[in-house]
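In response to a reviewer's request, we include the raw inputs and outputs for one of the modeled complexes. The two entities were modeled together in a single run.
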Amino acid sequence: MAIDGLVILDSTGRPIVQSGFRSTSPAYPLLHIEALNDALSKAPRPADADPVLYVPNTGIDGPSACCHVKRGELRFLGLMSGDTDPLYVFAFLETFISILRDYFGQLSAETLKENFDVVYQLLEETLDAGGHPSTTSINALKDIVLPPSLLSKVLSVAGVSGLASPGTNSHPFASPIPWRKVGVRYNSNEIFFDVAEELKAVVNKNGGIIVSSVWGKVHTNCRLSGTPDLLLSFSNAQPLTDCSFHPCVRLQRWSRDKNLSFVPPDGRFILMEYKYTPGGVHHVAVPFALKASVDCEVNGGSFDVALTSRLTTKVLENMNVELYLGEGATSASCVVSNNTSWNFDPRTRILHWNIKAVSPSSSFSLKGTFSSTAEQPRPSHAFRARFEIPQHSFSSLKVDQLKITGEMYKPYKGVRGRSTGDVEWRW
Amino acid sequence: MAAQGGQDAKFFQRGKIQEFRAELQAAEAKDKKFTKRKTVLKKIVANITMGNDMSPLFTDVVQCLGIPLLEIKKMVYLFLVYYGRSKAEQIHLVIPSFLQDCNDRNPLIRALAIRTMSYIPIPVVTEALTEQLRHCLKDRDPYVRKTAAICVAKLYTADPRKAEKGGFVEMLRDLLLDSNATVVSNAVAALSEIGDRQDGVIFKLNLTVANKLLAALGESSEWGQIYILDSLLRYVPERHTDAELMAERIIIHLQHANSAVVLTTIKILLYLMNYMENRKLMDYICKKMGPPLVTLLSSGPEVQYVALRNILLIIQRRPSVLKNDVKVFFCKYNDPIYVKLAKLEIMYRLAREENAREVLAELQEYASEVDIDFVRKAVRSIGRLAIKVQPAADACIQALLDLIETKVTYVVQEAVIVIKDVFRRYPGKYEGIIPTLCENLDALDEPESKAAMIWIVGQFANRIDNADELMDDLTYTFMEEPVEVQLALLTAAVKLFIYKAQSDTSKALVHKVLKWATEEVDNPDLRDRGFMYWRLLAINPTVAGEIVLAEKPAITTDSDRMDRGALDQLLLHTGTLGSIYHKNPETFIRNAAGKALTDSPALNPLSRQVLVPLSRPNIPPAIHVPGPGPPPPREASVSPVPPTAKPAPPAPPQTGDLIGASSSADTLDGEGENEHESGEHGDEDSLASPSGSADPYANLDNAFGSYLADEPKPQADDHLTRLF
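The model returned the following structure tokens for the whole complex.
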């Protein structure tokens, strides 16, 4: 089980940063980069390139494989051989990306180049000699790799100890809890829980739900001093199934009484993820209805779409409906209701229809035609609609209380809900 | 660090070796806080990362190693990591600094020194490292100990025998009992790396140590958990209860946020289940494995893909996992193609009478999609569904006919190909649709569909009024057709003649075709078959008829599944490349060690019967050439058929390839019982007798059956099926 190395490519497919490939020939990473760029150019859409690319390496290193993910303009490659788990590579890439985000704020070729020395130190610490991921907990990492100085200056002003100067903590891993540093101090102690739920559904042309599921994440921002031990209980945790937790959560306790008992990491983290399954066989309802007809003719077609909110009190925000108009689609012209806008992206051949706010029970329409160089245009057979509902949760998950032990202070607690949806509506 | 973010970009300028050297020398003067040298070093490191060769600066850079500043040390060490290997004759200059740093007060520097030394596989360095490592493994600081553990694996790579003689393996073993969980998991990782080597010591766990490791699991980082969980594959339970207790201890890790931890846990549970007896517990574990697998599907497409390929294996071995969750695998139109194809295959596997209608409705939806590759496979899956689930066959055939109506050529072609198989599965039931198929003859321009249609015309020539006309038209281009179609034409012409011996057209036709096949064509297969038919017909046309039109073995979906022994073995690779490509990794990837179930009194009997032993090559240590590089091929006979990359991962489960000469006997165990899921036992452990297959045509089925949606091409040895 080992990752041979990591390479970060810019938007043109050129390497910006790569880890030292110590046990392979220098050509090894290059062969993978080449194989990847080749696969990307051959795939009908770049997103269709096989995520685990087999590289029948003809060099002295023998065959291997390359896992890749794209984040923003950057593409991250994890090179692997042997009995390695691709998921392990993807999990590492994901972790490394979030570390980079934490250190540099945003990810771009520029930031990586500006901070290359930090990036290299991070690589050294997170991916050990034999390609074993080692220290990836941000709290522990900041003891051994200092964030870019601007950031550390800010931190030292803010009074966070242990970060500002390298000398103060020469005993990394001194904390008995790997995800939490010792001696964290805040002037005001606060913790925020952000419950974000996403509805994913597929609806057939009659409005019948084929699949629908709600996935939730509890984003947490913890700014508590010392080593607090928290107990979070929900008033209605029963419909939460398929949960997965941050390592800090005591799993035994959850399986006993569905309470979350944990010593939180410092800063932002995802406390838990879950799937909401309403009782019985009911589906979670899709909060709007779409009536659509699409007709294809020679070199074009027409469509007529009506969208109605099924909500009675809340507003659907940033509704975005899109339709892929098929290979060869060149242009579209539409008439839309007031307060909505449309545009056609000739590069992706996707028609977008944006509605800022769909107020309760309101309706909107989109009518139009499109032209295509294909004699028989084949638009996709489904619309994709994405939306947000602020201050809402599909599961109506409620935090009952948060108990804190081990520390004397009373923290400020905040809980917020927000929901998004991603619905495929077939026509 | 000192330089503010935003200014470092200027270091990315091509610099000249001489300039850097001069700058370094100039920096030595009046450089109280070493800021000048730091700047130059930064430029040099930036140049290394741009791929410029900075190795001529070796002597200049290593002089900075004496500077007592962590930041500078880190850069010098980075330089050494890059160029140390190639500077064998100068490396001795650095040894004193290495030794000094190994005893520094700061644990970060101690760790940095041994880590860097382990990257430089030059004898003098290795020699020095050996000495230092001994006390670093017992350092009071856990950071140093955990780094030292990994360094042992590197030392072992550089010189296995020396590491063994030095007692390092034993010291690593002692670290398994360290008080710090990170140290424990790194020791496990190092031992696993050593144990995976072809020439390494064998790393096995006994129950006591395995339990100790489990105790460290809770405090480990996610990566540590993966190492520890993975190492449990090296523990062979001797009693059922041992396996059962261990499974109960690790099952909780199915709820970890890290997807790799989840999949590794599943791998170990699947492994332990081979050694269990308690049916209730096994059912419980199967039930528990479903939700985390579904959760993986809510992640990004890359993780979904890995999960899907693994699910495909898992549900073949343990059909009760996810059996009610087919809807989870319905495709979204904007899923990447590799996700769609993997989902399609799983939908087919999970299809049963109870959900066949929903599955069919989805497949029909997909048949109108944009992506041609996907549409083809959806159409083909409709046919396979008809073959697999008898009660749904009528609806599937109707769906196929509707699709043929669309006249979209690639849809029609795929439909024809599967309908041929449907005819074989349900003889005498659907021949009424033949005229509809004949109407679309002109649409067929691909060899596979054409050959399928020709097979249908020949096989049912007695039911098609104008069969001789059709055949006459079809043979018109005989000489230009690919061999596949020519073979089909030859057989069909013979069949036509046997059905309609009186007809002059058919007589002339068979004569013409036989003559072409035997005299004009270069392909030996075609010629041989031509001669064979010719003689058969010449000697005794009646007998020829009996032979050529003999009753064919019915097609079943049994052999769609993988051989059980191979499956057991592949599941040990759950999550690894092997499970993506459905091949044992050692056959196609470098540095991969094979895995096999190990026999023990607790192993369940059926698994034992199909046990595929693993041969560990006994390379005498003396011959071994130390150093990195690909391992020697394990067996000449295992042809490393590299999977071809397009379009989706390759590798149909060519059982022969995976397990050598094993017969296809195991497809038998309980198709009826498992596919149709009679209930209590959701998996294949029920001991059906794996007697040798009574059906001499079992291999024929394979020719048909093992095509996966992934792998559109039927096997080449399909000739036999066509011959008759």
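As requested, we also summarize the result in words. Chain A touches chain B through 108 residues (CB under 8 Å). Chain A is about 20% helix and 40% strand.
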